[in-house]
């Protein structure tokens, strides 16, 4: 179990209809890379109809509008999400993007978020210092995880990749060298 400041970590990723001006279409959570991930699509709220739908985002994620029409509502997604995360520290891949999409989701559900999401990079840097791990391990872990295949661009698998990066960067047996890279992320 990965922890940050005494709390377990919930690594979270969201996919959206567009990078700018879009709305959340999928949310994924990884609590432990060994346990996999949870994810769900999000049915667009009627208020989101005026927001942007980018065909490139659809091509990248493979998630089409029609598929979202039968997805859980924002309120149902918030229920699932809160069940998955419990009292964990919520760590998102990119706070500048994922934070506003979480806000949209909770606003559509008529709820207030009871957690403050943290940025993945900030948390990783804190943990590397706390565990006295070399900064190069973070770069190496990112290189290995990202280089082990195309980034899925789906919320659950992306959250799992974040978990693998964090686990590998903090592993006392992992030492990164650009001379002979190994890829132990599937262990």
Brief description of this entry?
The chain has 187 residues and is α/β, with parallel strands linked by helices.
Q: Could you explain the architecture of this structure?
A:
The protein is α/β, with parallel strands linked by helices and 187 residues long. It has a domain at 3-121: Nucleotidyltransferase, domain 5 (2-Layer Sandwich). The chain is built from 7 helices and 6 strands, in the order E-E-E-E-H-H-H-E-H-E-H-H-H. The protein has helices at residues 55-61, 65-68, 74-85, 95-108, 120-130, 135-147, 155-170; strands at 3-4, 7-16, 24-32, 36-41, 89-92, 118-119. Strands 1, 2, 3, 4, 5 and 6 form a 6-stranded mixed sheet that branches. A hairpin with a 2-residue loop joins strand 1 and strand 2 (7-16). Helix 5 runs parallel beside helix 7 (155-170) and helix 6 (135-147) runs antiparallel to helix 7. The longest helix is centred in the C-terminal third of the chain and has 16 residues, at 155-170. The radius of gyration is 17 Å and the shape is globular. The protein starts with a strand and ends in a 17-residue tail after the last helix. Residues 183-187 have low confidence and may be disordered.
């Amino acid at each position: 179990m990965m922890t940050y400041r005494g709390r377990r970590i919930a690594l979270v990723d969201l996919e959206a209809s567009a990078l700018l001006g879009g709305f959340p279409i999928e949310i994924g959570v990884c609590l432990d890379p060994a346990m996999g991930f949870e994810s769900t699509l999000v049915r667009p709220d009627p208020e989101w109809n005026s927001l942007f739908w980018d065909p490139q985002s659809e091509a990248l994620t493979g998630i089409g509008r029609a598929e979202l029409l039968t997805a859980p509502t924002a309120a149902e997604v918030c229920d699932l999400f809160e069940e998955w995360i419990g009292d964990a520290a919520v760590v998102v891949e990119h706070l500048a993007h994922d934070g506003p999409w979480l806000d949209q989701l909770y606003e559509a559900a008529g709820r207030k978020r009871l957690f403050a999401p943290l940025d993945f990079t900030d948390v990783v840097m804190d943990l590397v210092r706390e565990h006295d791990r070399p900064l190069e391990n973070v770069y190496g872990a990112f290189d290995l995880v990202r280089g082990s295949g195309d980034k899925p661009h789906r919320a659950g698998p992306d959250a799992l990749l974040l978990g693998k990066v964090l686990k590998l960067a903090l592993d006392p047996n992992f030492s990164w060298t650009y001379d002979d890279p190994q890829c132990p992320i599937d262990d």
